[in-house]
Amino acid sequence: MAVFKLKINNRDYQTEADPDTPLLWVLRDHLGLVGTKFGCGMAQCGACTVHVNGEATRSCVLTVSAVSQAKITTIEGLSEKGDHPVQQAWNEVDVPQCGYCQAGQIMTAAAFLKKNAKPTLPEIEAAMSGNLCRCGTYHRIREAVQRAATKKK
pTM for this structure? Predict the structure, then answer.
């Protein structure tokens, strides 16, 4: 066990964990930040996506020891009021069905749009292709990402 100081959602946290504990479990079980979901545990589905230094990253395979100096953002920290342009577009398009994948989808889309403010449909499809949706709302996800790109950030 070791003590880790983490910067998450612009707040300082301290927690004790084994160095090889996945960030996902530190977020959920140690810190109570449960918006980030467990999907596959193998970085294949995207449900656990968070931002690490602004990059969309799979937290299920990233150890807590690897992020002790990083700036981490979870879905809870994307915006204080849930009014990030991607979140607004998600609501306007009515993307979620079961909603399980949505935090990871939103985090991936937000990081992508920060790098590419005016994406083409093929660019959106490529950027979002690593996030799986069990309900198959891919057409609404693409539409929401396109809509978010037109919103003022």
Answer: 0.95
In the chain, CATH 1.10.150.120 sits at 85-150
Q: What is the mean pLDDT of each run of 10 residues along the chain (153 residues)?
A: 96 97 98 96 97 98 96 96 95 92 97 97 97 94 97 73
User: What CATH code is assigned to 2-77?
Assistant: 3.10.20.30
Question: What residue spans in the chain does CATH classification 3.10.20.30 cover?
Answer: 2-77
Please give the class, per CATH, of domain 85-150.
mainly alpha
Q: Within its chain, how far is the Cα of 53 from the centroid?
A: 12
Task: Give the position of tokens 């990083």.
Answer: 70
Dist. CA 85–CA 151, nearest whole Å: 6
Q: Is 95 helix (H, G, I), strand (E, B) or coil?
A: coil
Q: What confidence score (pLDDT) does residue 153 get?
A: 60
**Rounded CA separation 90/42 (Å):** 26
